[in-house]
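Exam revision sheet. Question 4 asks you to relate a sequence to its structure. Input first:
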Amino acid sequence: MSSELRSIAIVAYRDIARFWRYKYWLAGQVAMNLADILIFGLIFNGVVNKDLIPDYVRFVTPGILCLSIFISSFSIGREVGVELRREVTQYLLTLPVRRESLIIGRLLGGAARGLIYQFGFLVFASIILAPPSPEGWAYVLATSFTLALTMSSVSISLSTVTRDFNMQATIRSLTYYLLFFVSNIFYPQRVIAARLGPLAPIVDYSPLTMATNIYRWAFKYDVLLNPLSNLIGLLVWGLIIVVVAYKLYLRNLLRD
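Answer key, structure tokens:
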């Protein structure tokens, strides 16, 4: 058991160490996320209906916490896809690590990337909004880990469902669009209901919507939200997607 845990830790550490190689990409992503908060907030503060969103900067900040995890955790999938296309997995299979440990390590490594990247934005959110209570921090930590593991698993699933690069790019772009815009990150509930009509309830079942709701509750933007029901829904999403990612990645490793 201890050897398996050590193998998982080594694989995860490898992916975390490789994450720091993308320093220019990381700098660009940080700048982009800050721009989402500042530029979007400054522009839309004077445009949106104050009855819907009194302060757009405060409204969008919890959503940026989700996007920071989404973007950074997704990076693991690109690496897995490249390894499969270039047959690097044949080398990985020669290592003294069980396939199951390799897969779990990759999933956790991707999740750790998301948590590391999000840390600074949590501090930023505590300044712009309000620091969470001890209970709020418990929800924040549980949400961040579950969301990071879910997004890492989604990314690996998309990279292992097919080895065709063009198909991967198409599926990834479609997933980006659905997760980004079929959520309440940028839009309040009343706007979503007006734009989507009878399809509006679909947004409530998005993992990004659930995570954003928890962050808005924890950072005291909207204390009327129910964090427990959203966390349960996010955990269900996470469990399903982790199992799918595990099966797809294992299928590709067995194929090699």
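Marking note for examiners. The two ends are 26 Å apart (CA to CA).
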